[in-house]
Write a structure and sequence with these properties.
This protein is globular. The longest helix is centred in the C-terminal third of the chain and has 18 residues. It starts with a strand and ends with a strand. The relative contact order is 0.31. The protein is built from three helices and eight strands, in the order βββαββαβαββ. It has one domain: D-tyrosyl-trna(Tyr) Deacylase, Chain: A, CATH 3.50.80.10. It is found in: Cytoplasm. Keywords: Cytoplasm, Hydrolase, RNA-binding, tRNA-binding. Belongs to the DTD family. This is D-aminoacyl-tRNA deacylase.
């Protein structure tokens, strides 16, 4: 399972002009389920992103987690993180989970996140989304979990 975490001061997702998810300070997470991913892998990824110390403390050091600051979590499915660009100029997405499995794992991560964190918003799986964000720092961290 792959993710790109962006520390934001605000972020929002719209579909066909309708606002469907919005947070203030927190993390925008672009999330991709790959072939062979499991709920155990999803659990590891979620635990890591909730506890990753990438928010500043009083001394300005990145020493606080999303849970420490009580920030928002905006989860957006993005199968294109599985892109393989080694074979030419058109990316291949063969490593992405099949759509049904990708949706199941995305929904699982969302449910687990809502059980573990008070502020969770989402995009819409398989929709043409517009994502706006103000990257704070900027801080952008790729994250990959394997079995």
């Amino acid at each position: 399972m792959k993710a790109v975490l962006q520390r934001v001061s605000e972020a929002r997702v719209t579909v066909e002009g309708e606002l469907i998810g919005e947070i203030g300070q927190g993390l925008l997470v672009l999330l991709c389920a790959e072939r062979g991913d499991t709920e155990a892998i999803a659990d590891k990824l979620l635990a890591k992103l909730l506890k990753l110390r990438i928010f500043s403390d009083e001394a300005g050091k990145m020493n606080r987690s999303l849970q420490d600051i009580g920030g928002g979590l905006l989860l957006v499915s993005q199968f294109t993180l599985a892109a393989d660009t080694s074979g030419g100029n058109r990316p291949s997405f063969g490593q992405a989970a099949a759509p049904d499995e990708g949706r199941r794992l995305y929904d699982y991560v969302v449910a687990q996140a809502r059980a573990a964190h008070p502020v969770v918003q989402t995009g819409r799986f398989a929709a043409d989304m517009k994502v706006q964000l103000v990257n704070d720092g900027p801080v952008t961290i790729p994250l990959q979990m394997n079995a």
